[in-house]
Amino acid sequence: MNVTLFHVYATFAPMTASSSALSQERTAVADACRRLGAEGLLIGTAGNVSVRVEDRVAITATGAVLAELTPDQVTVVDLDGKIVDGTLRPTSELDLHLGVYHRYGSGAVVHTHAPLATAVGLVLDELPCIHYQLLALGGTVRVAPYATFGTPELAGSVLAALDGRGAALMANHGAVTHAPTLDKAVENALLLEWACGVYRHAAAMGRPRVLDERQQLAVIEAAIARDYGTTHPVPPAQEETR
């Protein structure tokens, strides 16, 4: 399939420096981490979050407790990884984040050690498209082969797994999502964790049914035709008859 809802959503532009100052983005990264922590997707210092503003990236510092993150624990680097603002060393997964920005032009990256996503990555080679909402991530979610954290090998395997996808699972490690905006990258992480939970429950009862290509295409066509996922006011003519 050449088109998924992920490809549709990915056409939205990332943040620009004129739309938001980096100080605001540092606050947004801290807010996102605290939300992900509250949702149970981030534990202790495990995981990292970043957002890109043109040629600058605001990214979590290594060793920070993410569920309690403050804006001063977010470091700003350029797209080559050079620190341009901040007093703390950035996450050990900096190369992974920068690789996503260079290859896919994304606006934000979220890496978690979410329990259900991590569990699914222990047993599957890919999470199949068991629900149409997974089309927002590109359909099936690949599992990147295991590699030591913070290494070029890990970054390379995850970047390959993200090709055409908004999310990837990481064998024996966790998950990564990316999107044009930080809010969307967080939503993708939450969606992936939900889908992994659905798969786990279904697999405990039997073999989960998977949407085939025809069914997936029908969902995409319906979503585009109905502008799925946005609110719509009632037309004035219909309001008069209510």
Automatic annotation (TrEMBL):
<feature type="domain" description="Class II aldolase/adducin N-terminal">
    <location>
        <begin position="27"/>
        <end position="200"/>
    </location>
</feature>
<dbReference type="InterPro" id="IPR050197">
    <property type="entry name" value="Aldolase_class_II_sugar_metab"/>
</dbReference>
<dbReference type="InterPro" id="IPR036409">
    <property type="entry name" value="Aldolase_II/adducin_N_sf"/>
</dbReference>
<dbReference type="GO" id="GO:0005829">
    <property type="term" value="C:cytosol"/>
</dbReference>
<keyword id="KW-0456">Lyase</keyword>
<dbReference type="GO" id="GO:0016832">
    <property type="term" value="F:aldehyde-lyase activity"/>
</dbReference>
<keyword id="KW-0479">Metal-binding</keyword>
<dbReference type="Pfam" id="PF00596">
    <property type="entry name" value="Aldolase_II"/>
</dbReference>
<dbReference type="GO" id="GO:0046872">
    <property type="term" value="F:metal ion binding"/>
</dbReference>
<dbReference type="InterPro" id="IPR001303">
    <property type="entry name" value="Aldolase_II/adducin_N"/>
</dbReference>
<protein>
    <submittedName>
        <fullName>Class II aldolase</fullName>
    </submittedName>
</protein>
<dbReference type="GO" id="GO:0019323">
    <property type="term" value="P:pentose catabolic process"/>
</dbReference>
